[in-house]
Amino acid sequence: MEDLNPIAAPGMLVRHPDRPDWGLGQVQSNINGRLTVNFEQVGKQVLDGTKVSVIVEW
């Protein structure tokens, strides 16, 4: 899987590859590899971008 975390920008729609039950998420911020994403089913989550790759919905 290609690491798309560096291009994950606010407003982009993403999915967590290991948590499909979280639903679609919208990136709120990407600061120093820490992604804040608001997911449909679980709300706001802060993800360590070095530990997980998100799948960007084009």
Can you describe this structure in just a few lines?
The protein is 0% helix and 43% strand.
DSSP helix count? Answer: 0
- Can you tell me the number of structural domains? 1
Main sheet: strands, sense, barrel = 5 strands, antiparallel
Q: What's the SSE pattern?
A: EEEEE
- How would the global form be characterised? globular
Q: Evaluate the radius of gyration.
A: 10 Å
Class computed from helices, strands and strand pairing: mainly beta
Contiguous low-pLDDT stretches (5 residues minimum) are: none
Q: Helicity, in percent?
A: under 10%
- Average predicted confidence as pLDDT: 84
Indicate the proportion of strand residues.
35-45%
End-to-end Cα distance, whole Å, is 16 Å
